[in-house]
Specification:
This protein has about 325 residues and is α/β, with parallel strands linked by helices. It contains twelve helices and ten strands. The chain has helices spanning about 5-10, 15, 60-75, 95-105, 125-130, 145-150, 155-170, 195-210, 225-235, 240-245, 275-280, 315-320, and strands at about 30-35, 80-85, 105-110, 135-140, 180-185, 215-220, 260-265, 270, 285, 290. The strands form two sheets. The chain has an eight-stranded mixed sheet. Strand 7 and strand 8 form a beta hairpin. It is globular, with a radius of gyration of 19 Å.
């Protein structure tokens, strides 16, 4: 976990990834709208590519939430993927979830687990279960010391309590229909281990040690941008990490990278190819070239973006390295 000085003085990473030979990509059909409800979070994790934390004030307005719902309905998007920060800290979170479910969209909440213990989050877990929200929960290791080193002292213990609370509601239990998936991030400058083998380890350790059940494990590669990228620069490891990602690039992963079927929306309603491009301020490309201005989601209602060019930079190797990485875990 970073101290206040480290959080407030980040090295810019866009200049380091701007020049690239990453292969050109084009969109397929948009099936997922990933919406960032704001950068405010009750934690400040070392690997966070959003630079989220307790002092951030950016939060999506009710008006912009309405824009999201309008796009979901008009474009018949099947999945709403809600992220942050801690998205639950947005005062319009529950309204958005309930309204999206009424439209018929599947809803995913990217939850850090410790948020369930915040005083203002009373009733959050039962609400998620009632709306049949899929929970994707960050738990970067099954060892307490590793989690606390990456996310802050006491986080592992709080996370275990959160998982037990979700299990008690039926999350992660066979036949309940309440999906609970965990997310693993490496501790440093390495690629994630094979997802299947690591999932088996998680099941054994969490099941035997804490009685916890879950549906699946997603392994995510750390992106060399924002907080993690800045840490790499500070330690003189940025170029080595980029060489690792480039050297592990697999061409076959290009077919299933998340930006081909996902749109990312920031807290102001502007649109990007993915959450990582959002953090780098790289707007959606329209008409075959990157826009001089940011595109609002409302401008895309009813538009078909299939075959639209995707904005790629050197950080994109983080999604194609090794077994690949996406919001749904490994690609291979």
């Amino acid at each position: 976990m970073l101290n206040a000085n480290q959080r407030d003085h980040l090295h810019a990473t866009l200049p380091l990834v701007e020049v690239t030979d990453f292969p050109a990509l084009r969109r397929g059909a948009v099936t997922t709208l990933q919406v960032n409800l704001g950068y405010k979070c009750n934690q400040a994790c070392l690997h966070c590519h959003v630079n989220a934390g307790p002092t951030r004030t950016e939060l999506m307005s009710r008006e912009t939430v309405g824009m999201v719902l309008g796009y979901l309905g008009a474009n018949r998007i099947s999945t709403l993927d809600i992220t942050g920060g801690a998205p639950e800290l947005n005062p319009h979170f529950r309204y958005l979830v309930a309204a999206a479910r009424r439209i018929g969209a599947k809803v995913i909440d990217r939850c850090n687990l410790t948020i369930l213990e915040e005083a203002e989050m009373d009733g959050l877990a039962p609400f998620l279960a009632q709306e049949q929200v899929e929970i994707v929960a960050s738990l970067p290791c099954y060892l307490e010391e590793n989690v606390d080193r990456q996310r802050g002292k006491g986080v592992f213990e709080k996370s275990v309590r959160g998982l037990r609370r979700l299990n008690a509601l039926g999350y992660g239990k066979a036949g309940s229909g309440l999906m609970l998936n965990l997310v693993y991030n490496p501790q440093g400058t390495s690629l994630p281990p094979p997802q299947g083998a690591l999932e088996a380890d998680y099941r054994k350790r969490l099941g035997e040690g804490y009685g916890i059940e879950f549906n699946g494990l997603f392994t995510l590669t750390n992106m060399p941008i924002q907080r993690f990228g800045s840490t790499l620069v500070s330690k003189g490891q940025f170029n080595d990490y980029m060489r690792l990602l480039r050297g592990a690039h697999r061409q076959e992963n290009l077919e299933s990278v998340m930006c081909r079927s996902l749109l990312s929306v920031d807290w102001q309603g502007f649109v990007y190819d993915c959450d990582f491009n959002q953090m780098l301020g790289l707007p959606l490309a329209i008409g075959g070239r990157r826009s001089a201005h940011r595109v609002q989601l409302s401008d895309l209602i009813g538009q078909d973006l299939q075959d639209n060019a995707i904005v790629v930079k050197d950080h994109c190797y983080g999604c194609t390295a090794g077994q690949g990485s996406s919001c749904g875990g490994a690609l291979a």
